[in-house]
Specification:
By secondary structure, this protein is of the alpha/beta class. It folds into 2 domains: 6-58, no CATH class; 61-379, Aldolase class I (TIM Barrel). Helix content is 41%, strand content 15%. A 7-stranded parallel sheet has the order 2-3-4-5-6-7-8. It has a 3-stranded parallel sheet with strand order 9-1-10, with helices on one face. Strands 11-12 form a two-stranded antiparallel sheet. Mean pLDDT is 88; it is low at 326-338 and 383-391.
Length: 391
């Protein structure tokens, strides 16, 4: 793709000019700047600014990985309004995976060349913390080469409650079992005006941030997310991004920001329409421009759809996620995307968007393959490993 310098970008909205000057000078955007980005009618100009930052950081590269999802249980003590995945203990949809099923999923993932197993699920009030530790251990025993990215901050906080342990001790137990990094789920929207309405019972904003702060101090990288397109407003979204940015200033442990589009089907908020494609691209671009200290912005195709994810690679995103096998949470909420996309198809989609596909592992190191074998190469645009990291 042809690169444009900041001063070469054609803007149709004069309110974007001061932001262009800040970006060109390497200055940080403010809360007020964020609101301008939220409200500008110049979507293409906004996208061009985000693309310029994206290409300054990553050139023409677009990253993907070969991964598999594992949701060990859908039984959950919480009843978040937006969630279509959870089930009550006696619900006919309720399930808990057995040790044999977990091991089989891990072995299948390893056999198909996956480098990552992404594990999140419900907060089952009848299962002890030790069971969740065992899930990680079973995976690593069955597939030692797999990187385990497991358990959102909401799950970690729940484990601390039921185990009567400090968050640090919970994370240390999981690291000893084989945990490699944390996903970014459970952030939703941080502002109390929204969080208390849609998921007030579960981990607070302060607890979510504490879990990630602690994980980073222990040497774990993590992701960050934001659920948009429901009852929140522009100021809530910018507030959310600035809280993430502040923690990243403190720890440097976030690898990737993933804007998550709200899917209303089968939830208690199903009267709310899905976010539009315009909003999806706007959130991608704003995430890239506001989070100047987070290396990667991911276009999660499972929620966006493959076509929008392709376009997002020109709106600030540099990552399109992975092959994503066995994803349940967003498909329960009405996602009509495929359950799996092959690595070949992902590479084709990236190339069609004019980008260079690069396979990476969870920690953004190049994956080099020869036949069925693979090995980890050099870092590709990600941060250096944190001190004390245990991989």
């Amino acid at each position: 793709m042809g690169r444009l310098a900041m001063n070469e970008i054609r803007l149709c909205d004069p309110s974007l000019e001061p932001i262009r000057r800040k970006l060109g000078a390497g200055e940080r955007l403010s809360f007020e700047d964020g609101l301008v980005l939220e409200r500008t009618p110049d979507l293409l100009g906004l996208g061009a600014l985000a693309n310029a930052v994206r290409e300054r950081l990553h050139g023409n590269a677009a990253y993907y990985n070969i991964n598999t999802h594992l949701n060990p249980t859908n039984v959950c003590v919480y009843r978040c309004d937006f969630c279509a995945f959870r089930a009550d203990l006696n619900d006919e949809r309720a399930y808990v995976m057995t040790e044999a099923q977990v091991r089989e999923r891990a072995q299948q993932a390893q056999a198909r060349g996956a480098t990552e197993l992404h594990i999140v699920g419900g907060l089952h009030h009848k299962l002890p913390f030790s069971w969740y530790v065992d899930v990680v251990r079973w995976v690593k025993q069955a597939a030692p080469a797999i990187h385990v990215k497991a358990y959102t901050a909401v799950e970690i906080e729940w484990f601390a409650k039921i185990g009567r342990m400090a968050i640090e001790d919970v994370l240390k137990r999981l690291i000893d079992a084989g945990l490699g990094s944390l996903p970014g789920g459970g952030a939703e929207i941080f502002h109390p005006e929204v969080r208390e309405r849609i998921c007030g019972a579960k981990a607070s904003t302060e607890k979510w941030l504490e879990v990630h702060r602690t994980a980073h101090r222990l040497g774990l990288h993590s992701n960050a997310t934001m659920l948009y397109g429901h009852i929140e407003r522009a100021e809530h979204r910018i507030d959310h991004l600035l809280r993430l940015r502040a923690l990243q200033d403190e720890t440097g442990g976030f690898q990737t920001f993933i804007p998550l589009a709200f899917h209303p089907d089968n939830s208690r908020m199903e009267e709310i329409p899905k976010p539009s494609g315009v909003m999806d691209l706007r959130m991608m671009a704003i995430g890239r421009l506001m989070l100047d200290n987070v290396p990667h912005i991911k276009a999660y195709w499972v929620m966006l759809g493959l076509k929008t994810a392709q376009v997002a690679l020109a709106f600030g995103a540099d990552d399109i996620d992975g092959t994503v096998v066995h994803e349940k949470i967003y498909h329960e909420a009405g996602a009509d995307t495929p359950q799996e996309v092959s690595a070949e198809e992902i590479r084709r989609l990236i190339e069609e968007a004019g980008r260079e596909p690069i396979e990476r592992d969870t920690l953004y190191r190049r994956v080099e393959r020869e036949g069925a074998a693979w090995q980890i190469g050099a870092a590709v645009g990600g941060p250096p490993l944190l001190a004390g990291s245990r991989r």
